[in-house]
């Protein structure tokens, strides 16, 4: 999402091409609240780095987030609220060499029966290698 909305990113074209490839089809797109949080954090950081004034940063982030949330077939999913499932995070971190946030992304995908994951992040290599998720890049 960051690359998609960052006009200065060298990955913007790749991100746009990837998202565009899903839109005309009958794909369901999923975002978790964790992903939205990461997007907001990264976007605000980038805008701060580019010395965009604070009020304009929030306006830009709001407008970009709105266009993302308006994507056709987009659904918001959330991490588990089950204590038992949250205990799985440590095993996921250990088994797939993931940081806590990425382990929560993976758990959220498992709980929502999501089998494909679009990312430019290499942290999920073991998940893809072990064929738990199909990688779209």
UniProtKB/TrEMBL annotation:
Residues 3-127 form the PIN domain. InterPro entries: PIN-like_dom_sf (IPR029060), PIN_dom (IPR002716). It comes from the Bacteria. Coiled coil: none annotated. It holds the Pfam family PIN. This is PIN domain-containing protein.
């Amino acid at each position: 999402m960051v690359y998609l909305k960052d006009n200065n990113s060298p990955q913007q074209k790749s991100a746009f091409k990837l998202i565009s490839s899903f839109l005309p089809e009958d794909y369901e797109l999923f975002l978790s609240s964790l992903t939205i949080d990461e997007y907001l954090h990264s976007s605000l950081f980038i805008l701060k780095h580019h010395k965009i004034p604070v009020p304009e940063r929030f306006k830009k982030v709001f407008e970009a987030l709105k266009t993302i949330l308006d994507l056709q077939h987009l659904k918001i999913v959330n991490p588990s609220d089950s204590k038992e499932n949250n205990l799985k995070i440590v095993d996921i971190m250990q088994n797939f060499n993931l940081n806590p946030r990425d382990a929560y992304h993976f758990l959220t995908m498992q709980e929502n029966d999501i089998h494909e994951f679009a990312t430019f992040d290499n942290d999920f290599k073991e998940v893809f290698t072990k064929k738990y998720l199909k990688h779209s890049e």
